[in-house]
Amino acid sequence: MAKVHNWHLGREMQYRFDEAHPQRQFVAVFNTNRCIACQTCTLACKSTWTFSRGQEYMWWNNVETKPYGGYPHHWDVKLLHLLDQVNHGGQYWDVSQQTDEQPYGVFKGMTIFEAAARDGKENAIGYLPTEEEWNSPNLYEDTPRGPAGKPNEYHPGGAELPVHKTWFFYLQRICNHCTYPGCLAACPRNAIYKRPEDGIVLIDQERCRGYRKCVEQCPYKKSMYRPTTQVSEKCVGCYPRVEGTDPLTEGLPMETRCVATCVGKIRMQGLVEIENGAWAEDRQNPLYYLVRVEKVALPLYPQFGTEPNIYYIPPRWAPRQYLQQMFGPGVEHAIERYTNPSRELLAVLQLFRATQQIIFRYEIEEGEKILETEVNGRPFEMYNDTVIGFNSQGDEIVRLSVAEPFHVRPDQYQNSI
Ligand code: SF4
Ligand code: SF4
């Protein structure tokens, strides 16, 4: 196995292939705090990509209710168990070594690749879900965990912050278009590749022979086998939209379907520049700002080692230990930034789902102070700043104020506008 650098882990790790990077990387941020589990994203994806025979069970985008839900069932608990079996008690982070380059410190445990290398058999550890585990994609929807740790238990006064005693949250999931994909490392036919122009991970349908190694070794279970064609398929990152070939934007890069349709405005997707194998400093790119400057959005199970490229603003009410296992050691910091946002963060959060075009750069024009209050016992000031988003050509495509306009519908238009 080769040695590659994984910035999520803050160290080098073993991987099947030598380090290679695209010029730009497909990245998204999902704000779990705002999701209402309406599944509009799920259906937008389904009606675009997986509406045909043999794809009935495929949900390239799904929204599951944590802690019990998962598609396929218990995918993450199973992976965590597999890793714990190989490296019992050794899956921990050294947070004393946090720097800007390794913001989560150093992961001291084993990734899915390292755990497999120890046995010398596979490229990554994993498992093939059973047919049954792929059914009921939204099992345990809205099922909370109560004080004694059982489903559907309620605790009196269980919804007090900072951590609810009775809790659940929604986790939105698509393929992470990983920097070091488990699916790609697993494929004996070398049918999976990462596009140099945007880092989107695709399966070559001509080369694939349906061995299902990618289904087994994607830790997020986002590669799926299609029995009618006998090859595997996965989320394609809506690449025609990202390329700008959708007629709607006349050649300009556009957000994916799941992002563009999000009712809760929880999603933002774009491209970050890669330089010498790392994210190039790009302070005014909203994704760079959220992930690398504010560090308010975190990778999903970074310890798996694939360097996933979908980042999450963690739910502020859920137990921290649970969240730290899921999003790594950056959780306390991210929740602190989100609950006590800077002026700039408050403005950038307005850009979520503000336009279908990809925002490459933002600027902020300062406005007047509109509120002085207390949040969590601390003084908080709010300013009506204006945030402006620019597309790949540098043209302004969106302009929004922090204070949203308030409309009162006149009596004669109670049911229409
Ligand atoms: S469309 Fe947005 S709000 Fe609705 S389930 Fe999907 S991510 Fe959540
Ligand atoms: S999430 Fe899974 S399918 Fe997607 S790139 Fe990563 S390993 Fe491959």
Provide an overview of this structure.
The structure is a single chain. This protein is an alpha+beta fold and 417 residues long. 19% of the residues lie in helices and 22% in strands. The protein has eleven helices and 20 strands. The chain has helices at 40-49, 75-86, 112-119, 182-186, 213-217, 239-243, 257-260, 286-293, 320-327, 331-339, 343-349, and strands spanning 2-6, 11-15, 24-31, 62-66, 93-94, 106-107, 169-173, 192-194, 201-203, 223-226, 231-234, 267-275, 278-279, 298-299, 310-313, 361-365, 369-375, 378-383, 386-390, 396-401. A five-stranded mixed β-sheet has the order 13-12-3-15-14. A three-stranded antiparallel β-sheet has the order 16-19-20, with helices on one face. The protein is globular and about 65 Å long. The protein starts with a strand and ends in a 16-residue tail after the last strand. It binds iron/sulfur cluster (2 copies).
Can you give keywords for this protein?
single chain; 417 residues; alpha+beta; five-stranded mixed β-sheet; 11 helices; binds iron/sulfur cluster
- Radius of gyration (CA) equals 21 Å
Point out poorly predicted stretches.
none
Shape: globular
Strand composition percent: 15-25%
Named once each, the bound ligands are: iron/sulfur cluster
Beta-strand segment tally? 20
Read across the widest sheet, the strand sequence of neighbours is: 13-12-3-15-14
Number of helices: 11
Which structural class should the secondary elements be placed in?
A: alpha+beta
Biggest beta-sheet profile: 5 strands, mixed
Could you tell me how far the N terminus lies from the C terminus, measured between alpha carbons in angstroms? 62 Å
Average pLDDT across residues?
A: 96
